[in-house]
Design goal:
By secondary structure, this protein is of the alpha+beta class. It contains 20 helices and 16 strands. Strands 5-14-13-12-10-9-6 form a seven-stranded mixed beta sheet, with helices on both faces. A three-stranded antiparallel beta sheet has the order 1-3-2. Helix 9 packs across helix 11 (322-334).
Amino acid sequence: MSQKVNDFSVNEAWKKLIEKYSIIDEVEKNGQFVITAKQIKEFKEPRLMAKWDSSESLPSILKENKLNILPNSRNSYIISDFILYKEIPELEENILQMTSVKLPDYETIDINNISSEANAINVLVISNILDNFLQTEENVATFNGRMGTGTFDFQVNTFKNIKRKVTVNNAQCEIDGGFENENSVVILEAKNVIHQDFHVRQLYYPYRLWKNRVKKPIRLVFSIYSNMIYRLFEYRFNEFDDYSSIELVNSKNYSLQDITITQEDLRQIREKTKIKTDDNRNNTRIPFIQANSMDRIISLLENLYNNPLTEEQVAELMNFETRQSSYYYNAGRYLGLFQKSYQKENEKIVIKLTSLGKKVFKLNYKDRQLKLVELILEHEIFSYFFDEIFKTGTMPEKLYIIEKMKYSMKIRYIPFLIRLLQDANWPAFEYAVSLLSSYNKSDLIPFIEDALWKAYKSDDGMWISGIDILLEHIPIKPSEFENPKTYGLLKYGDF
């Protein structure tokens, strides 16, 4: 039986589209490929296949081939080697230097429960944060929602370092908030999930639409509300017809609550927190944390409060592949915040907050952060390094952290350690060899074999030599490799 449309993952569907329409060859030959919604629908619904607000969510087949996609009408898209995303600056401002805002006393607004982009925009305006940020008064909401872009041309940078021309004919764009004041028109893009970058299209298409409609200057604001903090960025396009001319003009952070957390607060939390697990994962199905952003765990906590989600919906919300969404679910599960539940009404398994997760969500900023610290410190490895940091005043090196982990947790870092063998002159080389020598040989062999073949295929003699040095400490017989030719690859080392 043939596989049904939508049974494919997004990545699988794009692989099939690329193969069927020779998209990579067409882009190489003509600079671009125009694909219709009808063609995309052969394998999966277009709404799931062509809208990624962050580059993190791009299907791997597109990432590998440096391809991106832009809508050029309501029913078609252009695929090319476009550079379409803008990195979001890190939150570097000292939290104590953030502008604190006092919200008027409205009975219908709970600052501990701003759980949607629409609510975040309402508070942004009511609190006068938007006015303060723009240094204007009386920003009045005048437009929002889905609109047709009209027709316009622009140019955009590519990975080949050339500019390509794009023509848009009444594509669809969605505006979260549109405002007008005495001196300007303001277009606002609002998010309540933190990402590493954003799709410039979200500002550029509305900008081009309204530039043809109004005489006042247009100001573009990108807002992120997460963990009770507003992060605002103002952008401009230095050339109206150049998508890639985007430039950050100003940024500022605002808090609605007391956000002061001292070292003494942290010390007190550590003193009262009892370690509940040694993080030997043999007796639990909860994996060790693989998520790499606490901010995004908190974003997911906030979005799950009133709205349990399937793994696929979490992936869509967070702009992740489904595999990545499981990392963040399991991280929340590790801390006791998330759980899975079967919904009879729609016969789906959803992720929702535990009773503890709901309590944490309802806490004010300071109490929430300290409670999260407590939940983290209940795990032995985190409490150990917390004490180390307090004692030394410095963050421990990654290799030292790996060394102190329980063996069942260490295994997943074998590929990372083997990659450190690519250059014997690296300061971490000997440390990596020492750590790898402490592993069970049976756990190392598959990874060593894989690395040897990768090094051979990429003509990396230095890496082969590094692995050879490791094998002086871990004697492996040629017969222990799955491929009998693997051991012979060592002769291709540089020394």
